[in-house]
Amino acid sequence: MAGAEDLIATARRVIDLEAGGLAALAAALTGPLGGGFARAVQVILDVRGRVIVSGMGKSGHVARKIAATLASTGTPAHFVHPAEASHGDLGMITRGDAVLLLSNSGETPELADLIAYTRRFGIPLIGVAARADSTLIRRSDVALVLPAAAEACALNLAPTTSTTMTLALGDALAVALMEHRRFTPEDFRGFHPGGRLGARLAKVADLMHGGDALPLIGEGAPMGEALIEMSRKGFGIVGVTAGERLVGVITDGDLRRNMEGLLERRVEEVMTPRPRRIMAEALATEALKVMNAHRITALFAVAEAAPEVPVGILHVHDLLRAGVT
Hints:
Structural class: alpha/beta
CATH topology of the largest domain: Rossmann fold
CATH class of the largest domain: Alpha Beta
Strand content: 15-25%
Strand order of the largest sheet: 2-1-3-4-5
CATH architecture of the largest domain: 3-Layer(aba) Sandwich
Helix content: 40-55%
Shape: elongated
Distance between the termini: 44 Å
Radius of gyration: 30 Å
């Protein structure tokens, strides 16, 4: 059995070989590959439909990932299995689409029907392969030829370096399209509403409570009414307003500090003036940072157009439920 040092040496060799492939790919973009890459981006920008990505075997797995990355960054795309395409799934491809085909050899038999279909109906075909004289490259409207690079396996057979380069090229296409379209964090969140990523991009406005849920009471009101409002709304806080402006807050801590004669007082005698607030358009992570820094559990949210008028309230429990950390 190989020792740990031998295993680590193998891992380093594989990673070094694949890194070399990526370096060669980057260098190739200064030549004909770069021109093809720019044309591929323009073809995709010009189509009215979607990008259909396909490949067989390991190239198919890479194609699925590229399609998913394109779709999540503003370029409608989906994967079509080449074998299924020959049995009816060609109907998923329309004349308004563009097709991105992946094949290291460029001679994958299962791609033949897809290639013929694009040629028959004038559908733009972008081919990615390692052989410039291959069928796929010769019949493509835009040819992306990968630079020569050794596979990372000792037999130089298992798709390793070649799939890494193809995947990187697909990521480069997706990011170039994303930047050209000025894809924003808000756009990105629209495609990623779930999980940790969605939570990181959530805004205060997405999580806050507004309208009748707001715990507010007017300046001059007796503390008895403030206690009723605080209990009824359940946030452990009540905002004190002068007209529409938020001028103070009363928290559980304020109540404990003013227990003696509490019910004989007016809200402005007990409140903490000039309370902290947060913009409704701020990221929820910013709200959590403020809460942690000042050891508070709730924040009133205000709009940029009227920074003294409360439009919502955000509690730390809302952040925890949404997975904001």
